[in-house]
Amino acid sequence: DSYALALEWVPTFCEGKESMSECSTQSPDRFDATHLALHGLWPNKNGDARHNYGYCGVAAADRSLDRPETWQRLPLPKLSPATPAALTIAMPGVSSFLEHHEWTRHGTCSGLDADDYFTRAAALVQEIAKSGFGLYLAAPHPGNTIDKSQAIAAFETTYGAGSGVKLVFVCAKVRGTPALSDVILNLSNPLRPASELASMLLPADGGGNCPPSFLLDPIPNR
User: Alpha helices of the chain — where are they, by DSSP H?
Assistant: First the structure.
């Protein structure tokens, strides 16, 4: 009955994970150095008391493979040529086979075929990137501490007054400092085109844990 769009600030995720492919290949000119990237598009079902809904029709043998070290062995339905290209930009975790996990765990419950599921998710990432919110995060803030209230105001320049309260900011500690790790938006079902994001926004499911100001972690100098 709804979706959670989970967007990830990859430099924070990559702290201490230098061996992961998407982390070892970070560069200043890569999309995720200055933009939120795709973590996942997660279908929700209100009838589930834990709000945890997944593995729809997935065999037990495949569920057992749903661990980072064996994600590459999970089946992934055939995608059109344009979809992996879009995901390479929007979801750098594809270099660690994250899309195999996301389809197995979440996409199978989406009511969409794999190509539509990933195409829509990648389009939502690009919609956020070009919004006032995305532009605020991108230039020139990575490496600086930002005010949550200003980030919310930037979101509202694109999606309307009051829409910023629907953002959930999740932070993690980086060298003792709270740093943005994820932004989560709840979206209505059925999904509309990404350009109609404002009409899909639902109330936030919790307020997140970020303080009034937090770090936008930059990629490390190499």
Answer: 10-13, 21-24, 60-64, 82-90, 98-105, 114-130, 132-138, 148-159, 197-200
